Amino acid sequence: MKAVHWTGLALLLGVGAAFFWLRLQVPLLVPLFGLSLPVEGLWLLGFGLGVLFAGLYLLAFGLSAFWERRRLMREIGRLKGELEAMRRERIEEIPRIPDRDQETP
């Protein structure tokens, strides 16, 4: 997943560099819906849409990671509860496993 993020960043920076390079060039006019827009305006529009979609992607990715972590923590709590219930029933058969949060001697 890191490769996808680095590739997206490189593409974003490349589009930004192309926009600034085109801004220094002779402005070309592109007909669009009856208007004549300069190429730099189209690059700016494309760059803005790219930033918007990248932001939405990162927001969705972060939220999915957050909800997955919550689900896994609930599952861990449920399994710990089951283990404690089994330990109370048959205390001599199940060895005690120390938690990772506590220091072991």
Automatic annotation (TrEMBL):
Q: What is this protein called?
A: Lipopolysaccharide assembly protein A domain-containing protein
According to the record, the segments passing through the membrane are 41-67
Could you name the domain of life of the organism this protein comes from? Bacteria
Report the source organism. Thermus filiformis
Q: Which UniProt keywords are given for this protein, alphabetically ordered? A: Membrane, Transmembrane, Transmembrane helix
